[in-house]
Design goal:
The complex is a heterodimer of chains A (170) and B (83). Chain A is of the alpha+beta class and 170 residues long. Chain A has one domain: Aldehyde Oxidoreductase, domain 3 (Alpha-Beta Complex). Chain A has five helices and nine strands. In chain A, the strands form two sheets. In chain A, strands 3, 4, 6, 8 and 9 form a five-stranded antiparallel beta sheet that branches. Chain A has a four-stranded mixed beta sheet with strand order 1-5-7-2, sandwiched between helices. In chain A, strand 3 (38-39) and strand 4 form a beta hairpin. Chain B is built from three helices and five strands. In chain B, strand 3 and strand 4 form a beta hairpin. The longest helix of chain B has 11 residues, at 29-39. Chain B starts with a strand and ends in a 6-residue tail after the last strand. The chains are: A alpha+beta (170), B alpha+beta (83). The interface between A and B is medium-sized, with 28 and 17 residues.
């Protein structure tokens, strides 16, 4: 499920919803992104998150579909906020539910890495020195490339899930 | 066709939404960028370094080589910083 909203969300309630009525779910994994209070040694008073409304949900739906094709997920949720946020506020929730932990962990990380480099959101920070648009990090692009290389080389990261399960069964 | 711009590209271009009617010779994104640059100093500023510009056509990521048709929505924005 995808939601793009101005309002805050309740992490506990969202994770409960992922498991509700799904007896096959053995584990939930969540990533919650927060607004930091410092940027390059300057105190942040507020950030603004701009997005491209007609593209955002479509882009997030695509990545959720990819994750669910790649890992055996029972359910997933991506909630991303926009608008004006203060330090400590929640920005994003990615939650995954699966029978076993490895699929939930890996799919959650995959979705976060993907949305950091592809979902059309832009942050502007307000500090005592003025405002500035946050610049994209090369390390975020590298994180996504890691998943794409795994796919291209036939080393789908979900293989490690199967490997781990096989070991557990032995 | 409709142009939309976001973040600092919007500020440099001076528009968040723009409806334009380029000549028939403009049939891909590269041609559109060159036409906008020549037409308007705001766009020229926004497109000064194309390595910093990301493109979407009809809400899907695209490249400078993407073909355009009347009625398309072309978005220009910096590398994304959500999450």
């Amino acid at each position: 499920m995808i939601r793009v909203q101005r309002e805050d969300f309740d992490v506990g309630a969202e994770l409960d919803r992922l498991a509700a009525g799904r007896g096959s779910v053995g584990g939930l994994c969540a990533f919650v992104g927060l607004v930091r209070d410092m940027s390059e040694q300057r105190a942040i008073s507020v950030i603004e998150l701009e997005h491209y409304p007609s593209m955002t949900e479509r882009a997030l739906e695509r990545i959720e579909t990819q994750a669910r094709a790649r890992w055996p997920l029972d359910a997933s949720v991506v909630i991303h906020r926009f608008g004006r946020l203060e330090p400590g506020d929640r920005i994003v929730l990615v939650g995954t539910a699966s029978a076993h932990r490895h699929a939930a962990f890996e799919a959650c990380e995959f979705i976060v890495d993907w949305l950091k480099t592809k979902a059309p959101f832009w942050k502007r920070e307000h500090t005592d020195a003025g405002t500035r648009w946050v610049e994209a990090r090369a390390s975020d692009t590298a994180a996504l490339a890691h998943w794409e290389q795994g796919e291209a080389a036939g080393h789908d990261p979900s293989n490690s899930t199967r490997g781990a399960r096989k070991k557990a069964a032995e | 066709m409709k142009i939309v711009c976001f973040a600092w590209l919007r500020e440099k271009a001076g528009v968040s939404e723009d409806t334009v009617s380029p000549p028939d010779t403009v049939n891909d994104v590269r041609g559109l960028v060159e036409w906008l640059r020549a037409k308007d100093p705001g766009y020229a500023d926004a497109f000064e370094d194309l390595s910093l510009v990301r493109i979407a056509v009809n809400q899907e990521y695209a490249t400078l080589d993407a073909r355009l048709a009347p009625g398309d929505e072309i978005a220009f924005f910096p590398p994304v910083t959500g999450g």
